[in-house]
Write a structure and sequence with these properties.
Elements: H1 2-18, E1 29-36, E2 39-46, E3 75-78, E4 82-84, E5 87-89, E6 92-99, E7 105-110, E8 127-133, E9 136-153, E10 156-173, H2 176-189, H3 193-205, H4 210-223, H5 229-241, H6 245-261, H7 265-277
Antiparallel strand pairs: 1-2, 2-3, 3-6, 4-5, 4-10, 6-7, 7-8, 9-10
Length: 281
C-alpha cells in the first residue's frame, strides 16, 4: 500500500511539473476581415494598451519607424489589386510600417511580412507603396490600439489606425466596377472557348451525346486564338467516337504537330498510336 501511495504522489508531482499556466497576453492578437465591394481585406495585428502611458510622441516616437502594433508586424491582405491613396498595390499581403508625425504620418506597405517588430535592415526595394496622411484628434480615448476597415462603399474604404486620442485614415479603392463590368461582358457575350471545351470534354468522358460534344469542341477550336495540342487531341477523340475518322485524323495530325513543338512525349505517343489505328497515311 505504501508503495502504491508513493507512486501516486510521484505521478501527481509529475503532472504538476508538466502543467502549463496560461495567462493573458499584454498585447493580444487580433484579426479582422471585411469585404469591400467584391474584395476581401484582412488585418492581422497585436493590440498594445495605453496603461496610463503617453502614446504618440513618447512611447511611439515621432519621426521613427513603428511596427504599427506590438510583437510581429501588423499585416494587411488584399484579395485583388487595389489603389492605396494614389498608389497601385498588387493583391497580396503587406506589413504596415508607419512613421508617425505630429502633422503627417507616412504609411509604408512592405512586401516582407516575416518581421518581429521592424526589419533589422530596411530594404527600400520591398516598399510596394508609400502613402502620407494627416492624423486627426478624437475626443474619446481609445485604450487599445485598433486597426479597422471603416467608411465602406462599393468602391473602397479606409484603413483606420486608432489609439489614444489619435486617428489616422488611409483611403483605398477596390476594382469593383472593373470586376462587375468584366463579368457582365463575359456573361452577355456567351460561353467562352474554355467553356465549350470543358463541356465537350465532359460529354466525351461521361459518354453523353457525342454529336453535341462535337459541336462544342468545334466552337472551342474556332474561338481559340491558337488552339492547343491537347484541345486538338480531344477534338480527334470526339470525332473518332462520332464516327468521323477523316476529321479525327486531321485533328490528331494537328495535335501531333503541336506536341512536337513543345516536345510533349506523351501526346506524341498517343497521337502517333491513334493515327496508326485510324489508318492515317
Amino acid at each position: 500500500m505504501k508503495k502504491l501511495i508513493t507512486l501516486f504522489v510521484a505521478f501527481c508531482a509529475t503532472l504538476a511539473v508538466s502543467a502549463q499556466i496560461s495567462t493573458p497576453q499584454p498585447s493580444p492578437t487580433a484579426k479582422t476581415s471585411q469585404v469591400v465591394g467584391l474584395t476581401d481585406v484582412t488585418l492581422d495585428y497585436s493590440r498594445p494598451a495605453m496603461r496610463g502611458r503617453t502614446i504618440f510622441g513618447d512611447l511611439v516616437t515621432y519621426g521613427k519607424l513603428w511596427r504599427t502594433g506590438a510583437n510581429k508586424n501588423s499585416i494587411i491582405t488584399f484579395s485583388d489589386d487595389v489603389k492605396v491613396g494614389t498608389k497601385d498595390l498588387k493583391a497580396g499581403s503587406y506589413a504596415i510600417f508607419t512613421i508617425p508625425g505630429e502633422s503627417v504620418w507616412e504609411i509604408n506597405f512592405y512586401t516582407d511580412i516575416e518581421n518581429w517588430g521592424t526589419p533589422k535592415s530596411w530594404d527600400a526595394s520591398k516598399v510596394a507603396a508609400v502613402v502620407k496622411v494627416n492624423p486627426t484628434k478624437i475626443t474619446e480615448t481609445v485604450e487599445s490600439l485598433t486597426l479597422a476597415i471603416n467608411d465602406l462603399n462599393d468602391n473602397g474604404a479606409n484603413i483606420d489606425i486608432i489609439w489614444a486620442n489619435t486617428k489616422v485614415s488611409i483611403p483605398f479603392r477596390v476594382p469593383t466596377e472593373k470586376t462587375v463590368m468584366k463579368a457582365i461582358d463575359n456573361v452577355m457575350a456567351g460561353p467562352s472557348s474554355d467553356d465549350y471545351y470543358a463541356a465537350a470534354v465532359y460529354y466525351l468522358n461521361a459518354d453523353k451525346d457525342i454529336n453535341k460534344a462535337k459541336e462544342w469542341i468545334d466552337k472551342a477550336i474556332d474561338m481559340a486564338e491558337k488552339p492547343a495540342y491537347y484541345q486538338y487531341r480531344r477534338q480527334a477523340l470526339i470525332y473518332a467516337k462520332a464516327g468521323d475518322k477523316k476529321g479525327a485524323i486531321e485533328a490528331a495530325k494537328k495535335s501531333l504537330a503541336g506536341a512536337k513543338e513543345v516536345n510533349n512525349s506523351d501526346y506524341i505517343k498517343m497521337n502517333t498510336a491513334s493515327l496508326k489505328e485510324w489508318g492515317a497515311k
